[in-house]
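Propose amino acids for all 295 sites.
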């Protein structure tokens, strides 16, 4: 076995040990474990939604079943069009979670690469990007998202674009600050002396060592992105009818909240529980990845 293969094996062993330590610390946080269980339930519901209840039930209208309260046939009742609320919440979980997770992943990729480049190269590129981030963050996030959707049109794709744009600057700043503290480390200088390219150093050394703060920020940001998407759908600028989505369901239930409060209660509870579980998971990851907790 040559030295290169030995170093790779050592790095893999260190990664496995680090992952085991992180999981051990995470399990000690009971609130974080509760959040993980709740989040797992929501993810399983979204993945197996078609097996739980057919998608047709979420769209099928029935004048005879209009505004029926919860019953054995309709556990969460029916809406103003006679559609099954339970089926719409089950299939709405796909939209809400995919919006939160999808926009977060896109933001992490874009913000991570740009932030790493800012922290590593600095100079003019760093100054230009930071001023653009200052401009974007000077406008309230929800207002900026509303402006983007209003300009491009209200649909799923434009909603993803709007939410992604407002979240990228925060990742750029976080990754840049972490990279600035890493760029002057001895092993970065050693990689340069060994002839590694800038791209190789960024993706092989800098970004992997910045993953801790990125993971924590991303896990907590999913809830924020999901709530933003629900807020835009609530005001009619997000997912459009008849597609089931929790925020859009709240919008449709506004006129009936006094006489049929279940129309607001069930989608609202789904949003609250999902966002709470994501925040608990994020708090647990933050504590588990904190080096001070491992000492």
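Proposal:
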């Amino acid at each position: 076995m040559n030295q290169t293969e030995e170093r790779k094996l050592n790095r893999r062993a260190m990664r496995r040990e680090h992952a085991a330590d992180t999981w051990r610390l995470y399990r000690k946080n009971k609130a974080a474990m509760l959040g993980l269980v709740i989040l797992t339930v929501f993810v399983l519901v979204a993945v197996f939604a078609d097996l739980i209840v057919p998608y047709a039930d979420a769209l099928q209208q029935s004048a005879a079943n209009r505004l029926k309260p919860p019953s054995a046939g309709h556990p969460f009742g029916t809406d103003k069009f006679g559609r099954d609320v339970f089926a719409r919440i089950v299939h709405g979980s796909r939209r809400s979670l995919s919006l939160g997770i999808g926009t977060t992943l896109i933001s992490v990729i874009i913000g991570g690469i740009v932030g790493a480049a800012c922290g590593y190269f600095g100079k003019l590129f760093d100054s230009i990007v930071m001023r653009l981030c200052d401009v974007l963050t000077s406008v309230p996030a929800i207002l900026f998202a509303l402006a983007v959707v209003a300009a491009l049109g209200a649909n799923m794709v434009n909603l993803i674009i709007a939410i992604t744009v407002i979240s990228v600057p925060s990742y750029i700043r976080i990754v840049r600050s972490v990279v600035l503290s890493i760029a002057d480390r001895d092993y970065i200088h050693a990689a340069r002396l060994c002839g590694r390219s800038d791209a190789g150093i960024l993706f092989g050394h800098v970004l992997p060592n910045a993953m801790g703060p990125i993971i924590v920020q991303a896990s907590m940001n999913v809830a924020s992105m999901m709530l933003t998407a629900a807020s835009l759908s609530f005001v009619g600028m997000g997912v459009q009818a008849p597609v089931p989505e929790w925020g859009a369901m709240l919008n449709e239930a506004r006129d009936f909240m006094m006489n049929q409060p279940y129309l607001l209660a069930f989608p609202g509870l789904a949003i609250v529980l999902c966002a709470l579980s994501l925040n608990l998971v994020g708090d647990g990851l933050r504590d588990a990845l904190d080096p001070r907790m491992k000492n």
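The longest helix spans residues 85-121. The chain has a mean pLDDT of 82.
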